Amino acid sequence: MHKGLIYKELRQCWFLGALTLLACMGFAWWGKVTTAGYDVPPPPLIVKARFWSVQMSLDVLSANFLLCSGLLAIALGLVQSAWEQVGGTWYFLMHRPIPRGSILTSKLTAGLMLWAVCSSIPLALYIAWAATPGTHPSPFAWWMVSPVLHTWLSIPMLYLAAFQCGLLPNRWHGTRLLPCVAIGGLCFAMQFLAAWWLTGFPVMCVVIAIQLKALYQTFSVKGF
Amino acid sequence: MVPSDYAIFTDHLTRSYDGRRVVDDLNLAIPRGSVYGLLGRNGAGKSTTIKMLTGMVQPDSGDAWLLGENVVGMTPQHRERVAYIAENHPLYGWMTVRESVAFARSFQTRWNQSLVEMILDHLEVPQRRKLSQLSNGQRAQVSLAIALAPEPELLILDDPTLGLDTVVRRDFLESMIEVIHESGRTIVLSSHILMDIDRIADRVGIMVKGRLVVDCPTDHFRSSVRRVVASFSGDAPDCSGLPGVINARVTRGQLELIVVGFSEELEQAFCSLNIRNVDAQELNLEDAFIEFTRGSRRSLPPFSMEPVYA
Amino acid sequence: MDVQVDVSSRVPIYRQVCDQIRLAIAQGKLQPNDKLSSVRELSRQIVVNPNTIARVYTELEREGILNTRPGLGVFVAEPRSDLTKKARREKLMEQLNAFLSGAVHLGLTQDEVLKAFEEQMKKFQWKG
After folding, report:
1. Do chains A and C touch (3 or more CB pairs under 8 A)?
2. For residues B180 and B148, is the Cβ–Cβ distance under 8 A?
3. Do A12 and B55 touch (CB under 8 A)?
4. ipTM, 2 decimals?
5. Number of CB pairs < 8 Å for B and C?
6. Which tens digit of pLDDT belongs to each residue from A80-90?
7. How far is B304 from chain A (nearest CA, A)?
8. Shortest Cα–Cα distance, C11 to chain B (Å)
9. Which end of chain C, N or C, is less packed with Cβ atoms under 10 Å?
10. Which chains lie within 8 Å of chain B at 3 or more CB pairs, if any?
11. What does the pLDDT read at residue B85?
12. Tens digits of residue pLDDT in B55-89
C-alpha cells in the first residue's frame, strides 16, 4: 500500500462520492415531500416497491439509497481502472518503483474507503432517524434493517466487478459491462436468502475472494 | 556476450497483435553510456519495443535485459534505476506542477529536488499551474524533470518531441544535452524527427516492419547511404540486382540509384553495364532515412553493422 | 567562437564543425594559443551531442591544428608543417586543380575567377 497513491485516488474520485451524497439528499427531500402531501408524484428514478418491505418503514427511500450506493460502486470501479487509460497515465503509474500488487491494493483501498463513507452516511442517518422513537408514526424494529444491511454489504462485489471490467483489454462495448450486470443480479438476489449470515455471507466472501484473486492475477500480467 | 555489458540487451524479442508481428525477432544491444536513436516509420514497432523494455507489454517470446537484469518481474529497486517517459508525456492533468512532483517523489527513495527546481525554473514553468493548463512543451519539461530527479542510469523516451513546436523542441533538446553531459548515463529515444536524432544520438537503430535493419553509429549510417547519379547509353540498364542498390529510377535521361555501402564490386558492375559519370552524393540523415526505408518493400540489403574507422 | 550547425545539410555535423574551426584558424579569427570552448560549452551552445564535439577535437588534434593541455583546455596549436616543401607544393597543386576544374565547369571566365580569388585571399591570415 502506498499513501501517496491512496491520496491521489481519493482526490481523483471524491466528486463521485459528493455526487452520491447530493443524490441521496435529493431523494430524502422527495421522500419528505411525498410522505407529507401524499399527492405529489414520486421522483422518476424511484424504486416503487420492494418485496421484503411490506411491513417496513425503511422502504422506498432506503432502496434509492442502495441504488445510489450501487451506482457509486460501479462508477468508482470503472473510473479507477479505465480512466488511467485516458492520456496514457497507466504508463506513468506502472513505472513507479513499487510492486504492481501494491498499486492495485492502494487503488482498491481508496475506492472502498470512499464508497463505504459516502454510501453509509445517508443510510446511517436514515436508520438513526427511523430508530428514534417519536419522529414518525410507524413502528420500528431492528430486524427491518437487515435486508438493507445485507444488500449494502454485498455491493463491494459490484465495485470489484466494475474494476475488473475497466481492466479488460477489449475495446469499449456494452458487453464489457456484463460481469457488472451479473454481479448486480447476484447482489439483488442474495437478500432473499433465509438466514443471511449463514448462507448469503459465506457466498459473498467466496465470491469476493475469487474476484480479488482474479483482479490481482489480471493486474500482475496485464499489458498496457 | 553477457547482457550486463549493455544498458539494453534483447534476445529474439517478438510480439504479435492480431496475428501481425509488430516486433519480429529483435536483437538489440545498446552499449552503456551511449545515446541511441530508435527510428522507424509509424507502425514499425518502436513503441511496442519500448513498452516491452519497460514491462508495459509482455513479449510473446524472447527476453530483454535492462542494466543487466531481466525485465520479467522487474523489482522496484531495478525500476528506480530506469526512467521511462511514455509517448505524450502522460501526467495527471488535474494536478498542479508542484503536486505532480510531490506525487512522483512519494514513490522514490532517491530524489534530487534541486535538479527539478533547476529545470522548471530555467524554463519558467509556473509551479502552481495545473498540468492541463500547461503548453505541450512545458508539460514535456515537467515530465523530464520528474524522470531525471531519481538520477536514473538509463533513460528511455518514447518520442519525447512529438507534438512540440520548433522552438520548444530546441529547449527540450538543450535539456537533453545537459542530461547527456552526465557521463555514463544511457539514453534511448525514439523519434520521427531525424534532425533531432542527428544532433544528439551517437548510434541509430532503424526498424522496418518490426525488424531492426540498421544498428550502427549515426555518421556511419549517413555516409553509407548514398544517392548515385550517373549517365548511361542505350536502354536503361536494370540495376535492381546490383550489390547494395535499394532503389533505382531513371529521371531525365539520368540514372538515379540509392545505394547502401558504395563498393568496388558495384563500380565494376557499373563498368560492365556501361554506366558512366558516376557521382555518389552523401545525404543528410533525413534523406538517408527516407530513401533507405522507402526502398525497403523488398528485403533490405545487409547493412554492415559496425564501421571500420581509419 | 561562432560555430553554426545546419542539420539539413548533406555534410555530417561532425565535419561541419571541423571545417568551421579549420576555417576560423586559417582566417585568423582564432590565433595560436587561443583557448577554445570546452566540449561541454560548445555542445551546449550548438545543441549537439558532446561526444561529437569530443571527436572533432580529437581529429583536429591529430591533424596538429589543436592541442590539449591537460587541466587547462583545448588550444589552437602553433602552425607547423611536417611536410617537405615539395610535398606541400604537390598537395597545393592537387587542390588547385580540383578548384579550377570546378570553376571551369561553373562556366566562369578567367577574370572572374581571378578577381574572386584575390578578394577571398584577403580574408585569410597568411604566414610571413
Report:
1. no
2. no
3. no
4. 0.88
5. 54
6. 998 898 888 99
7. 35
8. 7
9. C
10. A, C
11. 96
12. 999 999 999 999 999 998 889 999 999 999 999 99
What is the signed CA dihedral for B262, B264, B270, B273, rounded to 10 degrees?
-140
The residues pairing with B230 across neighbouring beta strands, listed in sequence order, are: B255
A45 pLDDT more than 50: no
Q: What is the pLDDT of residue A215?
A: 93
Determine the length of chain A. Answer: 224
Residue with cell string 608543417: C81
Residue A224 has pLDDT above 60, yes or no: yes
CB contacts of C58 in chain B (<8 Å) are: none
Mean pLDDT computed over every residue of chain B: 87
B109 burial (CB, 10 Å; 0-12 / 13-18 / 19+) is: exposed
Return all residues near A16 (Cβ < 8 A) that are at least 6 apart.
Answer: A72, A75, A76, A79, A114, A118
Contact list, C52 vs chain B (CB under 8 Å)? 202
B277 in contact with chain C, both atoms CB, cutoff 8 A: no
CA distance B167 to chain A (A): 24
Q: How far apart are CA B197 and CA B203, in angstroms?
A: 9
B90/A89 CB distance under 8 A: yes
Residues of C in contact with B199 (CB under 8 A): 5, 7, 13, 47-49
The runs of H, that is alpha helices, within B44-135 are: 46-53, 76-80, 97-105, 113-122
Which residues in B lie closer than 8 A to residue A95 (C-beta atoms)? 54, 56, 79, 82, 84, 86
Q: Give residue B82's pLDDT.
A: 96
DSSP A216: H
Residue with cell 597543386: C93
pLDDT tier at C8, thresholds 50, 70, 90 = confident
Provide the b/e sequence for A77-115 (b: ≥16 CB within 10 Å): bbbbbbebeebbbbbbbbbbbbebeebbbbbbbbbbebb
Task: Output A94 or A145, whichever has higher pLDDT.
Answer: A94
Cell of A149: 444491511
pTM of the model: 0.85
Question: Which residue of chain A comes nearest to B104, CA vs CA?
Answer: A96
From B184, which residue of chain C is nearest by alpha-carbon distance?
C51
Distance in angstroms (rounded) separating the CA atoms of residues C42 and C2: 9
Supply φ then ψ for residue B198, to 5 degrees: -60, -40
Choose the closest CB to B88 out of A88, A98, A221. Answer: A88
- Quick check: B164 pLDDT over 70? yes
- Rounded CA gap, B9 and B54, in Å? 12
Q: Which set of grid coordinates corresponds to residue A163?
A: 474494476
Helices B166-181 + C39-46 axis angle, to 10 = 160
Q: Check CB contact of B198 with chain C, cutoff 8 Å.
A: yes
Q: Around Cβ A185, how many Cβ atoms within 10 Å?
A: 10
Nearest beta carbon to residue B181 from set C7, C13, C40 = C40
pLDDT tens for C98-122 read 999 988 988 899 999 999 999 998 8
Cell numbers linked to B166? 520548433
Per the prediction, chain A carries an average pLDDT of: 81
- Chain A residues inside the 8 Å CB shell of B91: 87, 89, 92
Average pLDDT for residues B25-47, to the nearest whole number?
Answer: 91
How many other CB atoms sit within 10 Å of the CB of residue C122?
8
In chain C, whose CA is at the least distance from the CA of B288? C10
